[in-house]
Amino acid sequence: MTPTLPALLCLGLSVGLGTQVQAGTLPKPTLWAEPGPLVTRGSPVTIWCQGTLGDQKFHLVKEGRQTPWDRLSPLEAGDKAKFSIPYMTQVYAGRYRCYYISPSGRSEPSDTLELVVTGAHRKPALSALPSPVVASGGNVTLQCGSQDRYDRFILTKEGEHKSSWTLDTQQHPNRQTRALFPVGPVTPSHRGTFRCYGYFRDKPQVWSHPSDPLELLVSGGSGKPSLLTPQGPVVASGQSLTLQCRSAISYDRFALAKEGARVLRQRPARQPQAGLSQAHFRLGQVSGLHGGRYRCYGGHNLSSLWSAPSDPLDILVAGWFPATLSLSVQLGPSVAAGQNVTLLCQSWSPMDTFLLSKEGVVHPPLRIGLQHRAGQNQAQFSMGPVILAHGGTYRCYSSLSRDPYLLSQPSDPLELMVSASPPEDYTVENLVRMAVAALILLGLGILLFQARHGHGGTQDAARS
């Protein structure tokens, strides 16, 4: 019958690594855990110690204990022993070694096995900056953070050869602890699924629950798609939001990534017409969480690489702050083409950034820092010499620089009307010339009239 580690530990039959074990000339055994050295709290785990064939007795050594745990008879193969933990807890987390004794002597101790229990604390959050999709040759930073004040974070990557990296935490201004794991220059071998854990320095083998998984993807050099939204870049809180990724290349699938987010949305491509592939990403009703910078990628089913990223699309969520703003134009709402026009946005709320948006355009709003004047916060948007295309409906918003994607309620709309430029003959310079010429002609007319009037009067006097 196979003994179990909990029962034997209760009997005091385990050993501390501090105990001096005289090593003999026999080769060291191999020590490993199944299903692995990271064990979820409450799950079973098996520790194996494998030596050489022959009559031997195995000893398992745990750091901090006093006596060895003996395995008197090996398994049928005759070269390894099995030590079982049916229910993993913090008690069994630690560093282990094993050795064996045979008639030929005592073996060298095995390499150290570090048995870790996970799930003892709350999970941290793992995100990729700027995006979980990275161009080949580029760089990305994986950020692990938590409200719990962990001393260290561990980043793990799944795969045949599971890897891990450990960093001390940093204090963040919002009272979080975090660690930044730089990755790059990125190659296709970097793609995979990552998780992170937190732990405290005094218990290095007792880890938190794992973070949600983050899949890191690598993009190649194929043509970038386009990302747009029918609603425009400024959307109202509660409005339904859909982003559209499209390309002239016949991709089989598209992916949408939000900067700083963990989730990568994927959709199969549709081909509404020849030479065009696209996918719609319906994000539901808008909340503050939707604000941010998005990119999309195209992919083929026969390749693990994604395309180059689309140009970034910033989604700005309006209605997040109850600020009262006013928008006005210095020359009045009706201006002539060619005139210099300035729109003035004013607020009585303590915001530090103003944005000017025009209805019906896809490009991002103009953004400018505030200017203090007469107790008000305001910003002036200079539009230079206007053309007919500047006409339209404008609104302004305010925001805070620490949350650039969350906007206030909009100002009332301002309708800017731009009339065509006057004909070239009616420029100011020509009008002055025409006025001077008119005055000269008028003066000549008066002189002629006086001359005629004076001559007629002389003849009348002679007759009388």
Account of the protein in words:
This protein is mostly beta strands. The chain folds into four domains: 5-118, Immunoglobulin-like (Sandwich); 125-219, Immunoglobulins (Immunoglobulin-like, Sandwich); 226-318, Sandwich (Immunoglobulin-like), CATH 2.60.40; 322-419, Immunoglobulin-like, CATH 2.60.40. It is 9% helix and 46% strand. It has helices at 5-10, 428-463, and strands spanning 30-34, 38-40, 45-50, 57-62, 69-71, 80-85, 94-102, 105-106, 113-118, 125-129, 133-135, 140-146, 152-157, 163-168, 170-171, 177-183, 192-199, 214-219, 226-228, 234-236, 240-247, 253-258, 264-268, 270-273, 276-285, 292-299, 313-321, 325-329, 334-336, 340-347, 353-358, 366-369, 371-373, 376-385, 392-400, 403-408, 414-419. Strands 20, 22, 23, 26, 27, 29, 31, 32, 35, 36 and 37 form an eleven-stranded mixed sheet that branches. Strand 24 (270-273) and strand 25 (276-285) form a beta hairpin. It is elongated and about 150 Å long. It starts with a helix and ends with a helix. One of its GO terms (biological process) is immune response-regulating signaling pathway. Its main location: membrane. This is Ig-like domain-containing protein.
Write a concise keyword list for the protein shown above.
4 domains; disordered N terminus; disordered C terminus; eleven-stranded mixed sheet; Immunoglobulin-like; mainly beta; elongated; 2 helices; six-stranded mixed sheet; 464 residues
